[in-house]
Amino acid sequence: MPVYHFVSQFIHFSIVPSHLLERLRIIVSMLSVPAIFYRPKGREEDSDNAREKFQVPESDHLTFLNVYQQWKRNGYSATWCNEHFIHIKAMRKVREVRQQLKEIMDQQKMELVSCGNEWDIIRKCICSAYFHQAARLKGIGEYVNVRTGMPCHLHPTSSLYGMGYNPDYIVYHELVMTVKEYMQCVTAVDGHWLAELGPMFYSIKDSTKSRQERKKIAEDEKSAMEDEMKRATDLIRARKEEQEKKEAAYIKRREIATPGRSEPSTPRRTPAKFGI
């Protein structure tokens, strides 16, 4: 999914309250670069350990947000990036994109106010942009796309990978096809959010009813539909009969009547007294 679609969802159409835009602006900027972390040969374990310090278990998007906030607290230091195996050039590019987004928001007269650490609200906003790229848990560490049923797997670099708990529903930024279908940049979401933000794709199924109750409800709905169709058929038939009567009466009125006769018929023979 292109990052600029993500931008348009949050900025141009203004579907997100202004107090969330500051955090979302950072997340969008982080998604505009190919990679943030690097793993030098021979120091893979050190790189992975440094990366784990930034991970937010619920979301890779929030992990990116956390990285930027930590870099900002350390004065945008290049040394700090090198110590934590982070691409300094990528982070500088992120900062440039963030400034460009600020200029766009200024043109739209959108106030930049932070929402603090209310990250659940941010996750819901992320869900509003990615609800069509959602997956549900099928097995241990295995997901399937909610709409297509395609198998999906968490990427080993994801914050949700190997954390000991897999959320029931997630949304992802993109799908990478290698030996498996790997989801990159994943965020855990609530199933009710998907039904609320993507009603054209999802709905909430009531699991409290028994099988017999659901069967009876289905039969009642079918019976009601058949009755409605019968009423509609009867109404159409009645209208058709009424229209036929109106047409017959109209044709009868248009027939020409000969004077002296009550109904059109063959004229009688002319009397002989008229000399014919």
Automatic annotation (TrEMBL):
Domain of life according to the entry: Eukaryota
Region (Disordered): 238-276
Matching PANTHER family: ATP-DEPENDENT RNA HELICASE, PRE-MRNA-SPLICING FACTOR ATP-DEPENDENT RNA HELICASE PRP16
Lineage, opening ranks: Eukaryota, Metazoa, Spiralia, Lophotrochozoa, Mollusca
InterPro entries given in the database record: DEAD-box_helicase_OB_fold, P-loop_NTPase
Keyword Flavoprotein: no
Keywords recorded for this protein, A-Z: ATP-binding, Helicase, Hydrolase, Nucleotide-binding
Coiled coil start-end: none
Protein name (database record): DEAD-box helicase OB fold domain-containing protein
Presence of the UniProt keyword Phosphoprotein in the record: no
Domain DEAD-box helicase OB fold: 122-199
Biased composition (Basic and acidic residues): 238-256
Organism whose genome encodes this protein: Magallana gigas (Pacific oyster)
GO MF annotation: an example: ATP binding
